[in-house]
């Protein structure tokens, strides 16, 4: 960890706790700042806040009082989930107080270079693939961000012998000033989180922040098949490395005659890759490019791609019960992710879908429901998905209260040889704390069938 003095005696407000807020507050305290923590959860129900108070950090709980901003703070470190429309953040902006996320702190103290991965879909799979390739290639990677430990915690332990491989959301990237990954990846960009960002343009600009500080000493790996990502690459000062699943490229990562290539070098035959689903080829190409740029040998990349079959909640194989195969794709929080999951199977599917209603319709699913023989819906969007299923000609449709109830109903619709797929096309927050919780409930319900 770099010993920096830029926070000594600086008055800083950490807004919102959870893991990132606790780690950021403790780090800033260690760096000599005068830290105040403000969290909405009452102090009596807030063990994180209680622990920070024991460290000598000032804690204010139960509400977000805007007048707190008049105490002369020089910086706010906010939880990524708090939107910029929040009165506290709006008040800080009006007062000219800078607002960052803890990713910025991690970069400032880290001795290790970063490989940063962002995008709408595929971030977690790509991050895991990069980590595994670097690990197999003896590059001493550490994993951080949404998929692993809080970045500013990992950065405290990292040395210049490590790489920090970090999954980054648009929420986190809106709060950076100097963060500059040695290698950045943008997997793809589609409509998402518009309830947070307001417009697709703002969402794209947040994603583009991953390369805003890069120079010609760093690399940007981008999806050459998308206009949005090509435009970000065009504006970047980094060395740009394209990848494509549809076109052979003069440089970068691409597919040719059933093989994965990097800069005209054959890496691995597609048939030997363990990870299912054509959509995962984007993740594989971008991860392989990052590994090559990090100095990983082909043999290590090949070993990972021949054995890595996916991560939890991302098209995860759960079990076979009486000839029915169950897959957990709870991470499919938008329609594109569900389309990708449906395209991975060429056998009859019973689809479990539904969740938080963000105001969008699901008409784009209709062309991909041809193999769906039954649909089980739940959550706020149940009726919207039922309507889409009817338009697609699905005869068996059932609305249930939750995922736990959906599993036995789906099983009752199925026959040996069918796939029973949880791929909700929606966020989980109407009923569940996270997509992980939703996926775990699905897995438990599947095991109850035995």
UniProtKB/TrEMBL annotation:
<dbReference type="InterPro" id="IPR005762">
    <property type="entry name" value="MurD"/>
</dbReference>
<feature type="domain" description="Mur ligase central">
    <location>
        <begin position="117"/>
        <end position="291"/>
    </location>
</feature>
<protein>
    <recommendedName>
        <fullName>UDP-N-acetylmuramoylalanine--D-glutamate ligase</fullName>
        <ecNumber>6.3.2.9</ecNumber>
    </recommendedName>
</protein>
<keyword id="KW-0963">Cytoplasm</keyword>
<dbReference type="GO" id="GO:0005524">
    <property type="term" value="F:ATP binding"/>
</dbReference>
<keyword id="KW-0131">Cell cycle</keyword>
<dbReference type="InterPro" id="IPR036565">
    <property type="entry name" value="Mur-like_cat_sf"/>
</dbReference>
<comment type="function">
    <text>Cell wall formation. Catalyzes the addition of glutamate to the nucleotide precursor UDP-N-acetylmuramoyl-L-alanine (UMA).</text>
</comment>
<keyword id="KW-0573">Peptidoglycan synthesis</keyword>
<keyword id="KW-0961">Cell wall biogenesis/degradation</keyword>
<feature type="domain" description="Mur ligase C-terminal">
    <location>
        <begin position="313"/>
        <end position="426"/>
    </location>
</feature>
<dbReference type="Pfam" id="PF08245">
    <property type="entry name" value="Mur_ligase_M"/>
</dbReference>
<keyword id="KW-0067">ATP-binding</keyword>
<keyword id="KW-0436">Ligase</keyword>
<dbReference type="InterPro" id="IPR036615">
    <property type="entry name" value="Mur_ligase_C_dom_sf"/>
</dbReference>
<comment type="similarity">
    <text>Belongs to the MurCDEF family.</text>
</comment>
<keyword id="KW-0133">Cell shape</keyword>
<keyword id="KW-0132">Cell division</keyword>
<comment type="pathway">
    <text>Cell wall biogenesis; peptidoglycan biosynthesis.</text>
</comment>
<dbReference type="GO" id="GO:0008360">
    <property type="term" value="P:regulation of cell shape"/>
</dbReference>
<dbReference type="InterPro" id="IPR013221">
    <property type="entry name" value="Mur_ligase_cen"/>
</dbReference>
<dbReference type="GO" id="GO:0009252">
    <property type="term" value="P:peptidoglycan biosynthetic process"/>
</dbReference>
<feature type="binding site">
    <location>
        <begin position="119"/>
        <end position="125"/>
    </location>
    <ligand>
        <name>ATP</name>
    </ligand>
</feature>
<dbReference type="GO" id="GO:0005737">
    <property type="term" value="C:cytoplasm"/>
</dbReference>
<dbReference type="Pfam" id="PF21799">
    <property type="entry name" value="MurD-like_N"/>
</dbReference>
<keyword id="KW-0547">Nucleotide-binding</keyword>
<dbReference type="InterPro" id="IPR004101">
    <property type="entry name" value="Mur_ligase_C"/>
</dbReference>
<dbReference type="Pfam" id="PF02875">
    <property type="entry name" value="Mur_ligase_C"/>
</dbReference>
<dbReference type="GO" id="GO:0008764">
    <property type="term" value="F:UDP-N-acetylmuramoylalanine-D-glutamate ligase activity"/>
</dbReference>
<dbReference type="GO" id="GO:0051301">
    <property type="term" value="P:cell division"/>
</dbReference>
<dbReference type="GO" id="GO:0071555">
    <property type="term" value="P:cell wall organization"/>
</dbReference>
